[in-house]
Amino acid sequence: MGKDYFVHESSYVDDNVKIGKGTRIWHFSHVSSGAEIGEGCNFGQNVFIGNGVKIGNKVKIQNNVSVYEGVTLEDYVFCGPSMVFTNVRTPRCEFPRNTSADYTDTLIKRGASIGANATIVCGTTLGKNAFVGAGSTVTKDVPDYAMVYGNPAQIHGYMCACGDTIVKADAKHLKCSRCGVDVDL
C-alpha cells in the first residue's frame, strides 16, 4: 500500500515521523525524527520541522519557515512566508543550549494566523484564532481572537475565525457582524 501523503523528491523525511493523510510537503524541506504532522497540511518550499514537533490538521506553513523543537501548532494554524519561531530564550554561541531541557515551549492554538516575517519568541502562547500582523515581534502571550502587530506586538483589536475584525460588545464579549459568532473573552 502506498503513502497517502506527498513528499517532493528534493525533501527529506527522517525515520520515526508520522504524517497524516493528504498532507503535502514541497521542495527542499526537512522533517526531523519524532515529528507528528496531521492530515491535510501543506508545507511550502524550504520548510524545516524539528525533532518531536507536533502539528495538527489542516495547517499551512508557507515558504522558508522553521518550526523548531518545542513548538506545537494546533489545527488550522497559518504560518506566513519567512516567519520565525525561536526556541531558546538566551542563546549563546560559546555556551550552546542544545538539549531539550534548554528549549522553551511555544503553543500556537487552533486557527491562529502568523503573518510574513513575524517573529514568535519562545515561551509564548498564541490564543485560538489570534492574528499576528506581518513583521511583528511577539514577546508575550496573545489572547484568543486578539489582533496584534508591531515591535513588540500589541493588541490593536480582535479578529473572528472568519477573518473579519470584530468589536467588543462589552468588556467580556465580542460579536462578529459578518458571520454572527458570539465570543466570550
TrEMBL record:
<keyword id="KW-0808">Transferase</keyword>
<dbReference type="Pfam" id="PF00132">
    <property type="entry name" value="Hexapep"/>
</dbReference>
<dbReference type="InterPro" id="IPR001451">
    <property type="entry name" value="Hexapep"/>
</dbReference>
<protein>
    <submittedName>
        <fullName>Transferase</fullName>
    </submittedName>
</protein>
<dbReference type="GO" id="GO:0016740">
    <property type="term" value="F:transferase activity"/>
</dbReference>
<dbReference type="InterPro" id="IPR011004">
    <property type="entry name" value="Trimer_LpxA-like_sf"/>
</dbReference>
<dbReference type="InterPro" id="IPR050179">
    <property type="entry name" value="Trans_hexapeptide_repeat"/>
</dbReference>
